[in-house]
């Protein structure tokens, strides 16, 4: 069963481009990343999925249900953390989560207590007095408290400090283990690689591709830096080399190909230092954004 199935989805805001002809699917049980720079159209896609805005054309389904016609039914199965949230300032966190729990018919308080403890969120505080990160935690609580089948998170980590972020990822992995599908939008590529199985890449409103994180890495270039007694000009004249820089007795470049060729070349040098590194996911993605 597909948790999410989007087909040729287009949303224009008058003359402004939102998203154009976006298609992809998320399998039930996946942790799926949705990546793109600010303004790429991630929130537009999510809001269309949840029927908060209407598409210009195309269709979307969640668990086989039509996102427009069956929006109310879908909402019971979904937990959603918006990118930007506006809350009732006068409510305490406790009042807010009780309100959300009532909406979803959640009677048991254990999960609320456990999540607030693990995220270090004080339930007695007023929403108006919370920092951005603590407001985010309250939003996370509201998105998870009913143990939904599908969790949709729009830029969930902005404002969370690193320790809380780590705990939040552990919680998400546990939610995934109990069977929840997780759809995670972000412009921070390094955090997506920590948790997601596959990613969809969005650029200027259009899909660039969907790939497994493991494949992205397997197909990737290696980053090589060498310092040696003397490196003749244009010494590394091999195929598969890009971003070549040479200065003084150092050279650095990206390489994709048979590493033996590089080692054969290096054996002709008096090498002082050699680094062969996996590039960050950011660098792997860069060729999509050129
Ligand atoms: N209500 C709106 N009216 C007009 N244009 C909009 C509206 N909402 C979004 N857009 C435009 O649609 C495009 C996609 O925006 P969207 O917010 O979906 O991107 P995003 O990838 O979620 O980025 P961000 O992380 O900055 O929110 C942008 O060019 C944005 O300016």
UniProtKB/TrEMBL annotation:
Q: Where is the ABC transporter domain?
A: 4-229
This protein's UniProt keywords:
ATP-binding, Nucleotide-binding, Transport
Q: Supply the SMART domains for this chain.
A: AAA
Question: Single GO molecular-function term?
Answer: ATP hydrolysis activity
Task: Give one Pfam hit by family name.
Answer: ABC_tran
Q: Which family does it belong to?
A: Belongs to the ABC transporter superfamily.
PANTHER family attached here? ABC TRANSPORTER ATP-BINDING PROTEIN, ABC TRANSPORTER ATP-BINDING PROTEIN NATA
Recorded protein name is ABC transporter ATP-binding protein
Naturally occurring in which organism (per UniProt): Lacrimispora amygdalina
């Amino acid at each position: 069963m597909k948790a999410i199935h989007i087909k040729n989805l287009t949303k224009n805001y008058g003359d402004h481009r939102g998203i154009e002809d976006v298609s992809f699917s998320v399998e039930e049980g996946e942790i799926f990343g949705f990546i793109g720079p600010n303004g790429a159209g991630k929130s537009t896609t999510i809001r269309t999925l949840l029927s908060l805005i209407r598409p210009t054309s195309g269709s979307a389904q969640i668990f086989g249900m039509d996102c427009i016609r069956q929006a109310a039914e879908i909402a019971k199965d979904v937990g959603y953390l918006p990118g930007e949230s506006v809350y009732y300032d006068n409510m305490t966190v406790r009042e807010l989560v009780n309100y959300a729990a009532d909406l979803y018919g959640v009677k048991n308080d254990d999960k609320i207590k456990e999540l607030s403890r693990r995220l270090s969120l004080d339930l007695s505080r007023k929403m108006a007095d919370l920092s951005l990160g603590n407001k985010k935690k309250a939003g996370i609580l509201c998105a998870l408290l009913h143990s939904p089948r599908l969790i949709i998170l729009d830029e969930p980590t902005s404002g969370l400090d690193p320790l809380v972020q780590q705990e939040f990822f552990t919680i998400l992995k546990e939610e995934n283990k109990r069977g929840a599908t997780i759809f995670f939008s972000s412009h921070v590529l390094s955090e997506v690689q920590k948790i997601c199985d596959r990613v969809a890449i969005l650029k200027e409103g259009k899909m660039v591709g969907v790939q497994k994180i493991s494949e992205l890495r397997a197909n990737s270039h290696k980053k090589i830096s060498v310092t040696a007694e003397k490196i003749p000009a244009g010494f590394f004249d091999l195929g598969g080399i890009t971003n070549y820089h040479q200065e003084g007795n150092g050279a650095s470049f990206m390489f994709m190909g048979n590493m033996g060729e590089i080692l054969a070349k290096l054996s002709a040098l008096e090498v002082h230092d050699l680094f062969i590194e996996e590039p960050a996911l950011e660098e792997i993605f860069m060729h999509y954004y050129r």
